[in-house]
């Protein structure tokens, strides 16, 4: 039986349970007595008891059953020919599974072809068990709940509690997914660091993963140029654009702009944040980079790169402007207007008030916003993939080419990738390091912002 | 006592958008005297106070009509410099609003922006004099570099008064300066108002009629945006001419 049919049956049972329980509860309500729960609550109570247990069972089952199926197959006499546990064994088994499920058309390994029928049989048997158990649980849950449909039963609060549980589960899924991603990142990075000493990776200044010395892969996997490039493009050049323009536009919008101007200007600024980064990317690569090079040449810089750090950084800065601006806007708005009035009443002009009172008062929020913006900028990928160079150079010259961590991760993982070479695994180590850096930045930024918010409440 | 009043307001109307907040108010604010504005909430007394140093300019929808003069000079005339006006007519707000800076910097703020002190020593002297006049010097002289926001509410309000008098104003407007303070802090502020009276013309908005009676020499009673009665405080409280004034001060409404 397919999963869809099972789902429809369970849903149908839930509907029946809902209707029956509601009808039964409605039958209690003939007098003028007040009940804690409306008939609908009883209905929902039963319906949830029909749906949730099989759902929970199937969630667990889907995690456990592949291992059980494989175990059943391996127990067959034909499986005695399997190689010992390892990469080959796993690939034969997964091929057999693909054949059994009709996902593959021919067997690469004939042992897989022989095992495939056993897979199909075991899978079918376990599917039957799952279906039967799920339906049984649906009936059991419904029956159990139905015995509770009594006038004095507080179905309302029970339903409330079940709903809360479901909401909690939903939020836990997001958290667990993040933990899973981090765990896989850690696992792959650990494999990398078994091949390459962590010191070579973190402090080495030479990066050329295309040519690796098998005896000393660490010599060409020094990540310092990448992190420098990331910092230079994302935190120096981009912020040199984003901080002044973002801050000044926020000051204009909050302090000077007439409401009618603010009404159309703020949304337009926010539209900037909605431009897909790939659009910024080709804008950087096709328009800004050649322009930057031409300007550099006209200034007499002969060796200007057409993949300059400046071009990528400038466009990234423009991308970040709305972000800085809206954080600064919030911080300036959070400064009590009494502060501004106090300064104006002393005879200070608007710009004196902003420079000497408003910005200092909003500074922690602004700093927090800038840190968040930096963490976004250094994680930004598309612009640098299109506009930054793939060659890692350790330079502070904005007209020279520079690369970033994200750009290198893309390069390492596209094309022919072998998942057991230091070259590919380096991507995970880079990803992990980048993740840790942005995580720390976010924590610091949020702490700063939070502490500041408390100060005015 | 001087002959002509420090500030005169004649036939003042204030609108917020289509709504009229003040209708035809005429009042004098005299040197060396405290005038109290009393009246129920929403009667326009704070709005009127804010017309006197053009703080209503910061409200985009506000429109002020009428004639308000400081030393005979029309403060709404186009050639009037709002910045100079506010330096001459200082203001203390309902809720203490020290800047998030040190105590010293709070008081030095005004003299700095107006260039009133030629040297650090001058500035120190201005800060000390202002804090002394505000009755706060002895409490804070050893911790001038502490944050102004770390003081108690009453101290913060006296800091705001010190801040206002540091620019050497001629008139001080106080908008319910004690409404956020406890009775002891209130008593200190009232005492301070008595001391400041000899030096500045003072207008104070208050909800508290006992306070008006204690600190002021003249009282103006506002109701529904109009000035109902204006005269010597003793007359207003003991022998009001208008029925509405009498009802209000005897607690019949408001």
Structural class of chain A: mainly alpha
Shape category of chain B = globular
Secondary-structure class of chain B: alpha/beta
The global form of chain A is flat
Return Rg of chain B in Å: 18 Å
CATH topology of the largest domain in chain A: MetI-like fold
Helix proportion range of chain B: 25-40%
Tell me the number of strands of chain B. Answer: 10
Q: State the CATH architecture of the largest domain in chain A.
A: Orthogonal Bundle
What is the CATH first-level class name of the largest domain in chain A?
Mainly Alpha
Strand order in space, largest sheet of chain B: 6-7-8-3-9-10
Subcellular location (chain A): Cell inner membrane; Cell membrane
Pfam families (chain A): BPD_transp_1, DUF3708
InterPro entries (chain A): MetI-like (IPR000515), MetI-like_sf (IPR035906), Phosphate_PstC (IPR011864), PstC_N (IPR022182)
Keywords (chain A): Cell inner membrane, Cell membrane, Membrane, Phosphate transport, Transmembrane, Transmembrane helix, Transport
Features:
heterodimer; A: 457 residues; mainly alpha; MetI-like fold; 2 domains; 15 helices; 75% helix; 0% strand; B: 254 residues; alpha/beta; Rossmann fold; six-stranded mixed sheet; globular
């Amino acid at each position: 039986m397919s999963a869809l049919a099972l789902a429809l049956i369970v849903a149908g049972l839930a509907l029946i349970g809902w209707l029956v329980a509601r009808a039964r509860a409605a039958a209690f309500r003939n007098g003028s007595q007040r009940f804690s729960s409306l008939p609908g609550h009883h209905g929902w109570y039963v319906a949830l008891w029909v749906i949730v247990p099989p759902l929970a069972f199937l969630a667990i089952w889907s995690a456990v059953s592949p291992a059980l199926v494989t175990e059943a197959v391996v127990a067959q006499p034909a499986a005695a020919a399997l190689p010992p546990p390892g990469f080959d064994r796993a690939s034969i088994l997964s091929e057999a599974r693909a054949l059994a499920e009709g996902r593959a058309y021919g067997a690469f390994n004939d042992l897989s072809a022989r095992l495939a029928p056993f897979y199909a049989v075991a899978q079918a048997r376990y599917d039957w068990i799952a279906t039967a158990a799920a339906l049984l649980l649906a009936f059991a849950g419904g029956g159990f709940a139905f015995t509770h449909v009594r006038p004095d039963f507080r179905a309302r609060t029970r339903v409330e509690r079940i709903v809360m549980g479901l909401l909690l589960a939903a939020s836990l899924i997001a958290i667990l997914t993040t933990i899973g991603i981090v765990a896989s990142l850690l696992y792959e990075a650990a494999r990398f660091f078994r091949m390459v000493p962590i010191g070579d990776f973190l402090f080495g200044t030479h990066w050329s993963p295309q040519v690796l010395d098998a005896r000393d892969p660490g010599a060409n996997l020094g990540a310092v140029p990448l992190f420098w490039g990331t910092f230079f493009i994302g935190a120096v050049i981009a912020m040199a654009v984003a901080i002044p323009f973002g801050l000044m536009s926020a000051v204009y919008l909050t302090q000077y702009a007439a409401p009618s101007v603010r009404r159309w200007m703020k949304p337009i600024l926010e539209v900037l944040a909605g431009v897909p980064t790939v659009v910024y990317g080709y804008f950087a690569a096709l328009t800004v980079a050649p322009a930057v090079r031409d300007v550099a040449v006209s200034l007499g810089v002969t060796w200007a790169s057409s993949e300059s750090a400046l071009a990528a950084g400038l466009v990234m800065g423009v991308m970040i402007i709305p972000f800085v601006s809206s954080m600064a806007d919030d911080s300036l708005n959070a400064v009590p207007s009494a502060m501004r009035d106090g300064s104006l009443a002393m005879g200070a002009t608007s710009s004196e008030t902003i420079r000497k009172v408003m910005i200092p008062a909003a500074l922690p929020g602004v700093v927090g916003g800038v840190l968040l913006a930096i963490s976004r900028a250094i994680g930004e990928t598309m612009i640098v993939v299109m506009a930054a160079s793939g060659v890692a150079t350790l330079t502070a010259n904005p007209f020279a080419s520079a690369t970033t961590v994200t750009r290198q991760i893309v390069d390492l993982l596209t094309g022919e990738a072998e998942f057991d070479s230091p070259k590919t695994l380096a991507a995970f180590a880079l990803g992990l390091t980048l993740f840790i850096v942005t995580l720390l930045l976010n924590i610091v930024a949020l702490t700063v912002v939070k502490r500041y918010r408390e100060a005015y409440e | 006592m001087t002959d002509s009043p420090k500030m005169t307001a004649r036939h003042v109307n204030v609108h917020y958008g289509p709504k009229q907040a003040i209708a035809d108010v005429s009042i004098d604010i005299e040197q060396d005297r405290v005038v109290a504005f009393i009246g129920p909430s929403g009667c326009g007394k704070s709005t009127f106070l804010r017309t006197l140093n053009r703080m209503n300019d910061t409200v985009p929808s506000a429109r002020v009509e009428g004639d308000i003069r400081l030393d005979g000079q029309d403060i709404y005339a186009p050639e009037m410099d709002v910045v100079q006006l506010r330096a001459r007519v200082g203001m203390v707000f309902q809720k203490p609003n020290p800047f998030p800076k040190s105590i010293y910097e709070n008081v030095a703020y005004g003299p700095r922006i107006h260039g009133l002190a030629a040297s650090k020593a001058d500035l120190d002297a201005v800060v000390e004099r202002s804090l002394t006049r505000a009755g706060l010097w002895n409490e804070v002289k050893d911790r001038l570099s502490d944050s102004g926001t770390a003081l108690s509410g009453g101290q913060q309000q006296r800091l705001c008064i010190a801040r206002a008098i540091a620019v050497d104003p001629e008139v001080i407007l106080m908008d319910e300066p004690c409404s956020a303070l406890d009775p002891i802090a209130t008593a200190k502020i009232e005492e301070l108002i008595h001391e400041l009276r000899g030096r500045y013309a003072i207008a104070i908005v208050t909800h508290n009629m006992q306070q008006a009676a204690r600190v002021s020499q003249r009282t103006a009673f506002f109701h529904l945006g109009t000035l109902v009665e204006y005269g010597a405080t003793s007359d207003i409280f003991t022998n009001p001419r208008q029925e509405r004034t009498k009802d209000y001060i005897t607690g019949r409404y408001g």
